[in-house]
Each structure stands twice: as structure tokens, then as C-alpha cells.
Amino acid sequence: MDKATYDKGMEIRRATLGDAYVDKAVDGMVDFTKDLQELVTTYCWGEVWGREGLDRKTRSTINIAMIASLNRQHELAAHVRGAINNGLTPDEIKEILLQVGIYCGVPAMVDSFRIARGVLEDMEAI
To answer: What is the DSSP string of the chain?
Structure first.
């Protein structure tokens, strides 16, 4: 693991998902999941999110669309919060989820709206 890329990834991860979310993931590490956390932080957040080709708002847009399309609701909640932190508005998130419904199916869209609404209400964004 490259420490500089890991540190860069941790900074981006915390800025996007929030300290509480990241602390819970890191504090919950056991020997079995340590390599997973290091890999995600280094390569997902440091290498990919740390690239200059797209800004964080665009990366959040893409993530919401992909995660909602795959119907990965646990991850969607974290990334809706991250999208707000990265500058998306609730209306932009709504539009992404409506498009998911057309291209990926209504069940994925309905579940995604349910999760996004809960997060946005919790954040008092709507």
C-alpha cells in the first residue's frame, strides 16, 4: 500500500462521506476486514476519486446512478450524503433516480428514492 495515496484517499473519503461514517468503518475493522478497508481507501478513494479528470460532484452523480442501478441500498445511503457534501442538490439527486427508473427499472428507482429521502430528511436537506 502506498501511504501517500492512502492518506489522499482518506482525506477524500472523509470529505465526501463524513467523519462519522468513516470512523464507524475504520473502528469496526477486524483483522479479516483490514485489507478491505485499506484497499478501498487507497484505490477507490485515493487512486480513482483522487484523479483530476472529474470533479467530486460529477463522481458523486455517477456513483448514485451506478449504485442505485445495482440496487445496493446500503451504499446508496452513504453516497447520497456524500453527493450533498460534494455539491449536488436534492433536485439533482431526484433527477438521477428518475433516470435510473427508466433505464434500470422501477424497483431500483423506488428503493433508491426511499433511501435518498431518509438521508435527505436526516440531513434536513428537504
So the answer is: --HHHHHHHHHHHHHHH-HHHHHHHHHT--HHHHHHHHHIIIIIIIIITT-SSS-HHHHHHHHHHHHHHTT-HHHHHHHHHHHHHTT--HHHHHHHHHHHHHHH-HHHHHHHHHHHHHHHHHTT--
Specify the pTM.
0.89
- Residues near 20 by beta carbon (within 8 Å), at least 6 away in sequence: none
- The per-residue pLDDT for range 77-123, each reduced to its tens digit, is 999 999 999 999 999 999 999 999 999 999 999 999 999 999 999 99
Q: How far is residue 25's CA from residue 14's CA, in Å, rounded to a whole number?
A: 11
Number of neighbouring beta carbons within 10 Å of residue 56: 17
CA distance 6 to 3: 5
CA–CA distance, 28 with 82 (Å, rounded to integer): 20
